[in-house]
Each structure stands twice: as structure tokens, then as C-alpha cells.
Amino acid sequence: MRNAVLEESVKSYELECKVSRETVLRLEKELDQERRKVVSNATDLQSLKKTLGESLEASRRVIEAARRESHCLEKQVEDLQAKAQAAEEKLQLFLERMAKLLQGKSESFISPSEGDILQELDKLCNKYEELLEPLSETMKVNSPAEGLGFEIRLKLVLSRTEQLFRQEASALIESRRLTFNLQQKVQSQKNLLDGKELQIQLLRRKLLEMEENTTLLETRKLKKKIEHLQGELRATKLSNSELRAQLAHADELKVEGRRIWIQGPSGNAFSS
What we know:
Residues 10-97, 186-246 form a coiled coil. The protein is 88% helix and 0% strand. By secondary structure, the protein is mainly alpha-helical. Among the domains are: 1-81; 158-263.
């Protein structure tokens, strides 16, 4: 009986030991799994920490780059504001200068504002367009130019002016050449006249001497020669007078050419 109880106790202990061993094995297995989980979680945590560190560093670099870019943009904005301020000051100074220039040609007060200056410039353009009409007619610019713009018509008038200037310059050169030739002829005639007068004076002296020492026949011959020389002298003086008249006429033509070029066919001087 006692042995049976012991055996039963042994069996019970063995069963409990078996259960305990299974429990220990199960707990060891669970512990090992938990350890693996802890290691895995630690690895994941290190990886996450590393990733977060890299993200944080990247964010810092991005923030630093954005800060530098913001600083550059602020500097650019300041530079642009300074340039805009300088441009505004230059514009205002330009408007003031334009107002002063236009004020001299206007009876009303012109304020240094863009609108007033543009309005005054429009008036001046209209005024110059009205002036361009008779100017084109006076300069004999072709009539089709009337349908063209102001700038093209002005270029045509300037081209016509240059053409007339070249013609006047050519005529002036020719007039100077003719004047020089006439002056040369006048000088030659003057020299010839001086020689004739000197010759007459010498002959008169010789005549006076011969009247005292020679016969009446020689005296008559000398008188005839003197009369002949006096006739040549008168002819030379007449030729000289004609040359002077031609020279004066050439000067008048030169002056008249300049007057015609300046005044135009209508006889009215151009005004600026």
C-alpha cells in the first residue's frame, strides 16, 4: 500500500517535472523570442535613429541653404530697390530737365510730370508737322512724301537739304575758281597798266628833253606815239573795268545763290 502511494507520488512528481520542463522550455523559447525581438527592435531603433539623424542633417542643410538663399534674395531685393530708387531719381531729374527745356518754348507752366511733358511733346510734334508742310514745299520734296510719317518726311527734307548744300558747295567752288581767275586777270591787267603808265612817263620825259634838243618832226612823232600809247592805256583801263565788273557780278551771284538757298523760292527765310 505504501509502495503504491509512493509510486503514485513519484508519477505525480514526474508528471509535474515534465510539465515544469515543458514550461521551462516554453519560457526559454519565449524568452529567446523576446530577446530576438529586443535585438530586432534595437536594430530597428538604431536604423530609425540613423535615418532620423540623416533626415535631421538633411533638414538642417536644407534650412541653411534656404537661409542663405533667403539672405541672397533679401540682398537682391535691396539692390533692386536701390536701383529702382536711383532710376526713379534719374527719371525725376530727366523730367525736370525736360520741363525746363520745354518751358522755354511754352507760355504756360509745365510741371515736371510725365503726363504734362508727353502732352507738351505732342504739341511740339504737331507744331513741327505743320512746319514740315511748307518746308517740304519750299525744299521741293516730292508730293508723295505728304502721306508718309513725320520721321520719314523729315529724313527726306534733310536729304534734300544735303543735296542743296552739295549743289551750293559745288557752285561756291566754281564761283571761287572764276573769282580767282578774274583776280588773276585783273592783277595781270593792273601790272600791264602800270607798265604802260611807266612807259608813258618815260616817253614824256624823253619828249620834254627832245623838245629842247631835237627838231619839231621828232616831237610830232613822239606826240603821235604818246597818243597811241594813251589809246592803249584807255583800252587797258576799259578792259580792267570790265574785269572788275565781272568780278563784282560773280560776287553778287555767289551772295544771291546763298540767299536763294537759305530763303528758298518763296523768298521767306526759314525759322527754327
